[in-house]
Amino acid sequence: MRIRRSVARFFGLAIVAAVSITVTSYFGYNAVWGERGYLALRDTNAKLASAEAQLDRVTDQNKRLEHRIALLSPGSADPDLVEELARTQLMDGAPGQVAVPRDKQ
């Protein structure tokens, strides 16, 4: 009877330890390699940095375009910009002038 109790106690403790180790392993695995784990967080941060850099580029381009539009507003058009746009579109100049196309930046 005494041996039976000690064997039952031993297996009871072994089962509790095995379940505890299994649960800890499960959550530990998911904390590192899971769908929302550390590695997924690192990949998401890399994608976020790339998207923020693209947003900065697009925002800068938008500001430059808004500035050019403001220079072309009726009543206060910048003559140099108007001439530049006309030459770019027409590729034409005065007699004796040569137009050389530039790559757009």
Describe this structure in a few short sentences.
The protein is 74% helix and 0% strand. The chain has 105 residues and is mostly helical.
Quick tags:
single chain, 105 residues, 3 helices, 74% helix
Secondary structure blueprint with pairings:
Layout: H1 2-33, H2 38-71, H3 79-90
Give your account of this protein's structure.
The chain is an all-alpha fold and 105 residues long. It has a domain at 52-93. It contains 3 helices and no strands. It has helices at 2-33, 38-71, 79-90. The longest helix is centred in the middle third of the chain and has 34 residues, at 38-71. The radius of gyration is 35 Å and the shape is rod-shaped. The termini are far apart.
Mean pLDDT metric: 86
N to C succession of SSEs: HHH
- Give the beta-strand count: 0
- Main beta-sheet annotation: none
N-end to C-end Cα span: 91 Å
Cα-atom radius of gyration: 35 Å
Shape: rod-shaped
State which percent range the strand residues make up.
under 5%
Share of helix among residues?
A: over 70%
Q: Quaternary state, please?
A: single chain
What is the overall number of helices? 3
Low-confidence stretches: none
Q: Structural class of the secondary elements? A: mainly alpha
